[in-house]
C-alpha cells in the first residue's frame, strides 16, 4: 500500500480451514473451523448438527436439494507469469510510476492524495459432498487499485477510484497497460473538474459508457435475478427483488435489444469458475433475454423450490462462509453499432463514461449512478465536459429506453457483497456503450 | 481449550529477536447465527475459529500478516516466509515504534454466561423475537440472531500482554405486513430477552404503523431518522474520524482540523471502548495502548481524530487507543441525546418524513462528504403532525457535514444498534434533521 510515492506497508494473508454443511431434521446447518485436527473437525461437525437440530422445530417444511449432475474434476488457471514473480520491488516501482503519471498528467489542479494497492492471491478449494461431487480448483487472481483526489482552489475536488482485476498470473499487470490508462484518464478528469458544466435540465438522450452499463446490469439485472432474493432468503440483509416467480419467462423489463448474460466460464475473469461450490457445472445464464425476464440464478435449494435444476450459482467466499447464490461475470450482450453511430443522431445529449457514487433500493428497482467523466453531446459529437450528472431511474425505465447497443464489450472488476456474515466475492461486470433515449438527468446536492 | 494469550506471547517471544517491533493479536470465537426467512430458519451457521494478526517492523519497514491458523508453529513458519517481503519494502511513512506498556484497567461485565449456554440452543431467543413481531401484526419476518463467545489477546515486543474474554449478542429483524415492512436491531454483550423481544415488536410496529400509501415530490424535507439510520450515517463519520482515513483521502475531516465546527452544537459523537455493554468494548488496543472514551465531535466541534502510534507520529498527535495496526478505528460509538419525544414523533416533526431504516450508503467524494443512501422499511410522510402514509423507498442525497450541521433535535433515549448496515456498535437516538435533500427516480 502506497500513499503518493511513499510506502505505508504491506500485508500478507493465509487462511486454511474447513466448512461443513449438513441437512439434519430438515434444517440446514453450517459450521466452519480452522482447527484441522480430527477432534477440531468433529467438534465443528457436532456444532453444525446440534445447533441446526435445535431450531429445526421452527421450520415449516424440510429443506430439500434438487437432483443435479455433480462433477468429479480438478482444474486450475494457467499462469504465464507466476504470482511470486511480481516482486516487491516491481510493485513499488509500479506504484511510484503511477503516482508520477498522475502528477505529470495534471496542469492546474493539485493532487493532494493518491493511494495505490496491488494484490495477488491464490485460492485452492476442495469441495466434497455426500451426493458424489468432488471438485478441486486452483485460481490465482491479481488486482490493482488507485484512489486519486484532484483539487482545484475554485472548483472543489474530484475523486476517482480505478480498479483492475482478473484471474491469471502476474502477466496481467503488463496486459492492463495501467500507466497508459492513467496517462489517458487523469487529464480528462482534470478537465471535468475545471470546466465541467451542469447537464441539461430537460430530458435528453444519454450514452451510458460500458463501465456504467456494467454496474447497472450487475445491480439491476444480476441481483434481482438471484433466486434466493426472489424467495426472500436475503430479506433482512441485501433485500428482496421486484422479480416474482410468475414473472419469469413472460415479464417485459426492456426493449428487444436488452439481453443480460451471467457467465462464470469466461477465461481470465475475476468471477471465473467451472463448477460451483455445490459441485454443479457452470454455464452461461441468460438473465434477461431480448427484453424479457428469463432465467434466475439458482443453487440446489432454490432450484428444488422452482422445480428445476441448479444452474451452478452457489459460491462461498472462503471456508468460513456458507455457499449462497452469487453472480460471477455479468454483462449486457453487445450489438453492432460503433461509438460514432451511437452518437450520430443525438442533437443534445450526455455521454457518461465513468461513475463514483451509486446505489439501488433493496427491491432492485430505484437506482442512482453519479457520473464522473462525462461530456455533452452536441450534434452527434462529444463537446464540453459535464460535472456529476445524476442518472436516477427505475430498472424498467432504464432498460425500456435502450435504443441502440454498441459493439465493443468491455469488463470491469468488482467485489460483490452479500450474505450474513457479509461475503465479498470477486466478479466482473461489463457491457458495451448504450444509447438511452430521452431521460432526465439530475445534479448532486450543493 | 485455546489459550490466545499463550499463543500471542509464544509468537512474540519467538519473533522479537528478528524484528524491531512485533505485535501479535489472537482472536478465538465460538459463535452461532440463526438466519431467518419467511418466519423460519434458513440456516444455522457456526464458527469455531482462531485468527492471528501479526504486526512486524524492521528498519522502519512495516508488514502485517493475517493468518486463519491456530497452531503457533505454523504461525511462526508463515511469518518467516514473509520476512523477505518485509526486507524488500521501503521505510513506511506511518512507522512509529510500538508504545511502551502502560497500566491498563480491565473492563468489568464483558461476559454473560446465558449467552454461552444459548450458543448450542439458540431456539428460545429466536422464537421470542419472531413471536413479538407476529404479535404486533406482522405477516412474516426475516432476520438473524447471533450469539458469540470471544477471547482476545494482544502481546507486543515492548512487553505488553493483555487478555479479554466476553460474549456478544446481535439481533435484528425485518417484519412484513402486506407491502409494508419495519426493521429494528439490538447489539450487546448480554442476552437480554426483553431487548430481543423489543427488536421483534418494534419491527412489527413499523410494519403495521399505516396501511396508507402516499406520494411525495423530490425536494427538501425535515426528517426524523431512526436510530438505525443514525447509526449507519454515524458509522461513516466514525470511520472518517480515523486519522488513516484522513491521510488516505477517505474523510470529510481532511478539510477540517480539531477545533472546527463540523456539526450543530446539539451533536456529540463519542468513541466509547469502555462502555462494557456494547459488543466491541475493549480495555486495550492492538498495540497495547489502554483505551479510553473520547469525543470525536463535542457540541458540534471536531475534538479528536482516532490514532494509532503511526498516524499519531505523522500528524503530531498522541495515540488514542484506537489501533488498528495500520488503520485506527472506533470501537463503539455513542451519540448525544436531546429533548425529542419519541412517543409522538409525528407531532414533534409536524411536517416531513420519518425514516425507519436505510442501506447502500455510497459517496461520490469522501473529502466533500457528498453521499446518498436509500430508505427501506417504513418511510412515513407526516403533515400537520399526522402520518399521511408510507411513501415507499426514497433517497437521501446530501452532504454528511450538512446533515450534521442541520441537526435540530435528538431523542431522549439511546438504542444499542448493530446490524448488517451498522457494523460498529452504536448507541443512537432518533434525530430530527432539517432541510434534508430527498430525490426521486425518473420513471
What does this structure look like?
- The complex is a heterodimer of chains A (446) and B (443).
- Chain A has 446 residues and is of the alpha+beta class.
- Chain A folds into 3 domains: 18-63, no CATH class; 75-189, Double Stranded RNA Binding Domain (2-Layer Sandwich); 204-439, no CATH class.
- Chain A is built from 9 helices and 26 strands.
- In chain A, strands 1, 2, 6, 7, 8 and 9 form a 6-stranded mixed beta sheet that branches. Chain A has a 6-stranded mixed beta sheet with strand order 21-20-17-10-26-23.
- Chain A is globular.
- Chain A starts with a strand and ends in a 7-residue tail after the last strand.
- Chain B folds into 2 domains: 4-206, PmbA/TldD fold (2-Layer Sandwich), CATH 3.30.2290; 211-443, no CATH class.
- Chain B is globular.
- Chain B is of the alpha+beta class.
- The model of chain B has no long low-confidence stretch (mean pLDDT 97).
- Chain B starts with a helix and ends with a strand.
- Chain B has a 6-stranded antiparallel beta sheet with strand order 3-2-1-4-5-6. A 6-stranded mixed beta sheet of chain B has the order 10-9-8-11-18-17.
- At the A-B interface, strand 2, strand 3, strand 5, helix 1 and helix 2 of A face strand 1, strand 2, strand 3, helix 3 and helix 5 of B.
- Strand 5 (27-33) of chain A pairs parallel with strand 2 of chain B.
List the helices and strands and how they pair.
The complex is a heterodimer of chains A (446) and B (443).
Chain A: E1 2-3, E2 6-7, E3 10-15, E4 18-24, E5 27-33, H1 38-55, E6 72-76, H2 88-105, E7 110-128, E8 134-152, E9 156-167, H3 171-176, H4 178-195, E10 204-208, H5 210-222, H6 227-231, E11 260-262, E12 285-289, E13 292-293, H7 300-305, E14 314-315, E15 324-325, E16 329-332, H8 339-343, E17 348-352, E18 355-360, E19 366-371, E20 374-378, E21 381-385, E22 390-394, H9 395-400, E23 402-405, E24 410-418, E25 423-431, E26 434-439
Parallel strand pairs in A: 6-8, 10-17, 16-25
Antiparallel strand pairs in A: 1-2, 1-7, 4-5, 7-8, 8-9, 10-26, 11-12, 11-16, 12-13, 14-15, 17-20, 18-19, 19-22, 20-21, 23-26, 24-25
Chain B: H1 4-15, E1 21-37, E2 40-58, E3 61-68, H2 72-81, H3 83-88, H4 113-118, H5 123-135, E4 140-156, E5 161-177, E6 180-188, H6 193-208, E7 219-225, H7 227-240, H8 243-248, E8 269-271, E9 294-298, E10 301-302, H9 309-315, E11 333-335, H10 345-349, E12 352-365, E13 370-383, E14 386-390, E15 395-399, H11 400-405, E16 407-410, E17 415-419, E18 422-428, E19 431-439
Parallel strand pairs in B: 7-12, 11-18
Antiparallel strand pairs in B: 1-2, 1-4, 2-3, 4-5, 5-6, 7-19, 8-9, 8-11, 9-10, 12-13, 13-14, 13-15, 15-19, 16-19, 17-18
Helix pairs in contact in B: 1-2, 5-6
Amino acid at each position: 500500500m502506497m500513499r503518493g510515492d511513499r510506502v505505508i506497508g504491506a500485508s500478507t494473508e493465509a487462511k486454511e480451514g474447513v466448512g461443513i454443511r449438513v441437512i439434519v431434521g430438515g434444517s440446514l446447518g453450517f459450521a466452519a473451523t480452522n482447527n484441522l485436527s480430527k477432534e477440531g473437525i468433529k467438534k465443528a461437525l457436532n456444532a453444525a448438527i446440534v445447533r441446526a437440530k435445535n431450531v429445526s422445530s421452527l421450520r415449516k417444511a424440510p429443506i430439500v436439494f434438487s437432483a443435479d449432475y455433480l462433477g468429479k474434476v480438478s482444474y486450475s488457471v494457467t499462469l504465464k507469469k507466476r504470482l511470486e514473480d511480481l516482486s516487491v520491488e516491481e510493485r513499488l516501482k509500479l506504484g511510484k510510476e503511477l503516482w508520477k503519471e498522475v502528477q505529470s498528467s495534471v496542469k492546474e489542479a493539485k493532487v493532494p492524495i493518491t493511494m495505490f494497492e496491488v494484490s495477488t492471491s491464490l485460492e485452492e478449494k476442495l469441495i466434497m459432498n455426500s451426493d458424489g461431487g468432488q471438485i478441486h480448483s486452483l485460481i490465482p487472481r491479481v488486482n490493482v487499485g488507485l484512489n486519486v483526489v484532484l483539487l482545484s482552489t475554485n472548483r472543489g475536488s474530484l475523486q476517482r477510484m480505478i480498479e483492475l482485476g482478473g484471474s491469471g498470473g502476474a502477466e496481467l499487470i503488463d496486459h492492463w497497460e495501467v500507466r497508459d490508462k492513467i496517462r489517458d484518464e487523469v487529464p480528462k478528469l482534470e478537465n471535468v473538474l475545471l470546466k465541467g458544466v451542469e447537464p441539461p435540465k430537460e430530458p435528453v438522450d444519454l450514452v451510458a459508457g460500458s463501465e456504467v452499463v456494467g454496474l447497472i446490469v450487475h445491480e439491476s439485472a444480476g441481483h434481482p435475478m438471484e433466486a434466493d432474493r426472489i424467495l426472500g432468503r436475503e430479506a433482512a440483509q441485501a433485500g428482496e427483488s421486484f422479480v416474482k416467480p410468475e414473472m419469469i419467462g413472460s415479464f417485459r423489463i426492456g426493449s428487444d435489444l436488452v439481453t443480460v448474460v451471467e457467465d462464470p466460464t469466461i477465461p481470465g475473469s475475476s468471477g471465473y469458475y467451472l463448477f460451483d461450490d455445490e459441485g454443479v457445472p457452470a454455464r452461461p445464464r441468460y438473465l434477461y433475454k431480448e427484453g424479457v425476464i428469463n432465467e434466475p440464478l439458482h443453487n440446489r435449494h432454490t432450484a428444488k423450490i422452482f422445480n428445476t435444476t441448479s444452474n451452478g450459482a452457489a459460491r462461498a467466499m472462503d471456508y468460513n462462509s456458507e455457499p449462497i447464490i452469487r453472480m460471477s461475470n455479468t454483462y449486457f450482450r453487445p450489438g453492432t453499432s460503433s461509438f460514432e453511430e451511437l452518437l450520430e443522431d443525438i442533437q443534445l445529449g450526455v455521454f457518461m463514461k465513468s461513475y463514483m457514487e451509486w446505489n439501488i433500493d433493496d427491491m432492485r428497482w430505484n437506482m442512482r449512478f453519479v457520473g464522473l467523466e462525462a461530456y455533452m453531446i452536441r450534434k452527434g459529437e462529444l463537446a464540453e465536459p459535464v460535472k456529476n450528472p445524476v442518472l436516477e431511474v427505475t430498472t424498467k425505465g432504464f432498460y425500456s429506453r435502450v435504443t441502440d447497443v454498441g459493439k465493443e464489450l468491455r469488463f470491469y472488476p468488482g467485489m460483490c457483497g452479500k450474505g450474513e456474515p457479509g461475503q465479498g466475492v470477486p466478479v466482473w461486470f461489463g457491457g458495451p456503450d448504450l444509447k438511452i433515449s430521452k431521460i432526465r438527468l439530475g445534479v448532486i446536492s450543493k | 481449550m485455546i489459550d490466545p494469550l499463550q499463543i500471542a506471547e509464544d509468537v512474540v517471544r519467538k519473533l522479537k529477536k528478528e524484528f524491531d517491533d512485533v505485535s501479535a493479536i489472537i482472536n478465538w470465537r465460538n459463535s452461532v447465527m440463526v438466519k431467518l426467512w419467511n418466519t423460519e430458519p434458513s440456516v444455522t451457521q457456526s464458527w469455531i475459529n482462531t485468527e492471528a494478526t501479526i504486526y512486524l517492523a524492521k528498519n522502519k519497514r512495516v508488514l502485517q500478516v493475517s493468518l486463519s491458523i491456530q497452531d503457533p508453529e505454523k504461525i511462526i513458519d508463515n511469518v518467516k516466509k514473509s520476512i523477505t517481503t518485509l526486507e524488500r519494502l521501503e521505510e513506511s511513512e506511518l512507522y512509529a515504534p510500538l508504545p511502551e506498556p502502560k497500566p491498563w484497567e480491565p473492563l468489568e461485565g464483558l461476559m454473560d454466561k446465558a449467552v454461552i449456554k444459548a450458543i448450542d440452543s439458540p431456539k428460545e431467543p429466536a422464537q421470542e423475537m419472531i413471536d413479538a413481531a407476529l404479535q404486533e401484526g406482522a405477516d412474516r419476518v426475516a432476520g438473524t440472531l447471533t450469539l458469540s463467545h470471544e477471547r482476545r489477546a494482544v502481546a507486543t515486543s515492548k512487553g505488553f500482554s493483555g487478555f479479554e474474554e466476553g460474549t456478544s449478542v446481535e439481533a435484528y429483524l425485518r417484519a412484513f405486513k402486506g407491502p409494508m415492512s419495519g426493521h429494528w436491531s439490538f447489539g450487546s454483550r448480554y442476552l437480554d430477552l426483553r431487548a430481543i423481544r423489543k427488536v421483534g415488536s418494534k419491527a412489527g410496529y413499523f410494519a403495521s404503523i399505516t396501511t396508507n400509501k402516499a406520494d411525495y415530490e423530490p425536494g427538501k424535507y425535515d426528517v426524523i431518522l431512526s436510530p438505525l439510520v443514525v447509526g449507519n450515517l454515524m458509522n461513516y463519520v466514525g470511520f472518517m474520524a480515523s486519522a488513516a482515513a484522513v491521510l488516505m483521502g477517505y474523510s470529510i475531516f481532511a478539510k477540517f482540523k480539531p477545533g472546527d465546527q463540523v456539526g450543530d452544537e446539539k451533536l456529540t459523537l463519542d468513541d466509547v471502548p469502555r462502555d462494557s455493554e456494547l459488543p466491541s468494548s475493549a480495555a486495550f488496543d492492538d498495540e497495547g495502548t489502554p483505551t479510553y472514551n473520547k469525543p470525536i465531535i463535542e457540541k458540534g466541534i471536531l475534538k479528536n481524530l482516532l490514532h494509532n502510534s503511526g498516524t499519531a507520529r505523522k500528524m503530531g498527535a498522541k495515540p488514542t487507543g484506537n489501533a488498528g495496526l495500520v488503520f485506527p478505528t472506533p470501537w463503539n460509538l455513542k451519540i448525544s441525546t436531546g429533548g425529542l419525544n419519541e412517543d409522538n414523533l409525528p407531532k414533534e416533526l409536524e411536517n416531513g418524513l420519518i425514516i425507519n431504516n436505510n442501506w447502500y450508503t455510497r459517496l461520490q467524494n469522501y473529502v466533500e462528504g457528498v453521499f446518498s443512501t436509500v430508505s427501506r422499511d417504513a418511510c412515513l410522510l407526516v403533515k400537520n403532525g399526522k402520518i399521511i402514509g408510507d411513501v415507499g423507498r426514497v433517497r437521501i442525497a446530501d452532504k454528511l457535514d450538512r446533515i450534521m450541521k442541520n441537526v435540530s433535535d435528538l431523542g431522549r433515549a439511546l438504542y444499542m444498534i448493530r446490524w448488517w448496515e451498522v457494523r460498529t456498535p452504536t448507541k443512537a437516538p432518533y434525530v430530527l434533521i432539517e432541510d434534508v435533500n430527498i430525490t426521486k427516480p425518473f420513471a
